[in-house]
Amino acid sequence: MNRYPLWKYLLVLAILVVGAIYALPNVYGQAAAVQVSMSNGDLPDGIEHRVQDILDQNGLHAESMRRSQGTLLALFGDDGAQRKARGAIKDALGDQYVVALNLASAAPAWLRDLGGRPLNLGLDLRGGVHFLLEVDMKAALKASLEQKAGDIRRYLREQDIRYRGVTLEDQRIRVRFADAGERDKAVDALDGRYRDLNFDTEEGGSNPALVAQMTQKAAQDERDQALEQNITTLRNRVNELGIAEPVVQRQGQSRIVVQLPGVQDTTRAKEILGATATLEFRLVHGTPGDWQQAEQSGDVPYDARLYHRRNGQPVLLQRDVIVTGDQIEDAAASFDNRTGTPVVVVNLDSAGANHMQEVTAQHVGDQMAVVYIENKVHTKKINGKEVKERSRTEQVINVATIRDVLSHRFQIEGLGSQEARNLALLLRAGALSAPIEIVQERTIGPSLGQDNINQGFMSVVVGLALVLVLMALYYKAFGLVADMALLANIALIVAVLSGLQATLTLPGIAGIVLTVGMAVDANVLIYERIREELRAGNSVQSSIHAGYDKAFGTIADANITTLIAAVVLFSLGTGPVKGFAVTLSIGILTSMFTAIMGTRAIVNLVYGGRRLSRISI
Amino acid sequence: MDLFKFTAEFQFVAHRRRAFILSGMLILISIVSIAVQGLKLGIDFTGGYLIEVGFDQAVQLDPIRSALGDAGYRDAQVQHFGQPNDVLIRIAPREGTSSAQLSDDVVALLGKSLELKPDLRRVEFVGPQVGHELRDKGGLALLLALMMILVYVAFRFEKRFALGAVAALIHDVTIVVGVFSLVRAEFDLPALGAILAVIGYSLNDTIVVFDRIRENFRRQRRGTVQEVTNDAINQTLSRTVMTSLTTLIVVLALLFLGGEAIFAFAFALTIGIVVGTYSSIFVASTLLLATGLSRQDMMPVQKENAGVDSRP
Questions:
Q1: Is the model's pTM score more than 0.80?
Q2: B158 shares contact with chain A (CB less than 8 Å)
Q3: pLDDT, tens only, A491-537
Q4: ipTM (interface pTM)
Q5: Residue to test with chain A: of B262, B302, B305, most A Cβ within 10 A
Q6: What strands lie across the sheet with A255-261, from one edge to the other?
Q7: Do B121 and A525 touch (CB under 8 A)?
Q8: How many domains does chain A have?
Q9: N or C, where is chain B less crowded by C-beta within 10 Å?
Q10: Measured between CB atoms, which of A445, A553, A580 is closest to B312?
Q11: Domain-embedded: residue A60
């Protein structure tokens, strides 16, 4: 009685060995590393030697260097060397490379080859920044409609259809006409040209009008695009910060999560992320004389708008936008090939390039302006209700003469070198089309992270030690068996978390601690049953057998209900609580294995098949 | 070493009236406290800023308060956090300031007014809208957990068991929240998480007792419903106490050694485990009796599920 077939012993052993292997990298921990990667594309061959040379020249020594997933990792003994090395490598390699501080597994190669990786530490354990950003979808849709309105104006002019005005009102474009005849001509011309718009005629008021609304699908596409584009732009900006393993992820319909682990300078990170700006290229309207007059009289020509430059001077610009910020692919400060003066080189996407070419072909010699638009969001209380208010400041940051037909790639000249750098930065920032707002932030300083690790670790160790002692005192030999199962359980939890590459957070540690307390429950149930059976006068072997057998249903029921609570916790979905739910769920599952099969294997091995008059329980 | 050398024979069921009075009073106090004092919600639910800064020496709070007041943060709550070197500042959501800016401003302000270099340890900002969402979502999760458990227990046992279990859980949750209100502890998202964990834990305890009640009904042919229930509680008593003890040990380790960051979490767990243990002994099973459970209720279920349930 109470013997397992050989395969069961082997199964338990195999699971424990696999668990031990995957838990092992955590013993080696993580080393301070410098991570080198290309901003686009793969690292060239021989980069190792280059980095080695750079380190040698600076008297620095990397403990080891290896390639990993398209990046080069150089491991250092301490943070100081890591920081110095990053500075030296960054300076020497230049802007094409992203050189970031990182943590890398210090486990030996054979362990890494088996896929063993240490746990990721959450922001609350290693310090860093977590942002939840919300994209202003209304503004995104409006910007898109504005572009379409401009297109309609241009197209109607081309088709010689006379209209009174094209205005934007509450997510709709209204085109007014003098008479129904013109309107019908417009309907014929526009119908089929815009698949994204639904056109309706409107008779009311003094003028017949045409009202265009975005189709539901187009609006949804627009929203998705705004979100995707923001994510891309944020990724680029985050890369500028030189942080390893940043997270930029979509959350739901309109939100983006940004996590920057290990960031030291949170102010700069926020500045870079928080700026929400868009750009527009517009043709200049009239002469400086006209501008002054418009400023003084307030009379602005129907096809123009009044703007101001940074120094306050007025400028009249055409109503139609040539190119918007989201059509800019890249902007960089550089120097002109021939003259050597500072310039900003701008790259447009194909839609932007086509339009730019179309417009500039007719306006060589005219002036073009860049308008920088900043969006700010305030939360105000009106009648006790929170209302978000948006303000928009528009500024002309550059006026330049069009020398040639411009297209995909062009440059803006006549700038100082500092000015060029600023303009390039603003252009890149302006590539973000819809305004975003930080709706949640968690910043954990590195010192607090270390405290959290120490305290979390300490509470696990103390709690665990006390439970081990209590179990051993109360259940004697069987208590020791339960203790072994408990330790194996923790190793398994760590192994599963490492294998899944889950992120360990402080609440996650709390989940492990709670599991430690609850995992022994299964053994308590079993052992109490065995004691009961013994008290009832049954033989040792049959008591052990009945104890395990009878306790099983109870353990399963109890654990499944706890698992339900854990799954609901997980679906609550926010960072800290999620981490707790994950470790709790994994702990419940692994504890079922170790507390039932694991202890049974040991008990069977030690006591099974022997004639015993008493056992130590 | 045994907690109870032989099967204990406490008259839990006979004393259920006293338990009901005690529970009723606890719940009444909790509800009154929640109604009168309210619950001190953390910024997770209200929205706002929480800024923790550390200094390399102990600092006074009054200069910080006046400096913040002068700068327009009159509503700022300032307190020491854990030790006199650490300061925790809470500020309600503001109009007109960009969210990212405020924490930097406050840290700069502290450095200037105290002439000490503050070490920014933690900033949390939750927008008011997100706060409300989290509150609603949290409440929903709580309800959802209770519903799913109700369904599971009804499916595995019988609907009266489910009612007893869920009533005991509502009892536990009310008292834990009541204690938070009573001692004015801050109720944040981790505390809500802890309550969900308490639900899982307390239920675990209750299920073990219920399992035994069901088993006893099938084995013992004699005995009233009260006697069978009382036996089940006694038979599982040493297990209940032992498991509560081990869990309490580790939770207390979290409470005292885990640091301020998870204090609310560990506090909710500690209260929850104590109340949960009490409720699974005194409340859940006696409530089960109050639903009018009879021997007949147990029998048909057994026949239908004979194959599944033959394993106790």
A1: no
A2: no
A3: 999 999 998 888 888 778 778 877 877 788 999 999 999 999 998 89
A4: 0.83
A5: B262
A6: A247-251, A255-261, A128-135, A436-444, B119-126, B48-54, B83-91, B77-81
A7: no
A8: 4
A9: N
A10: A553
A11: yes
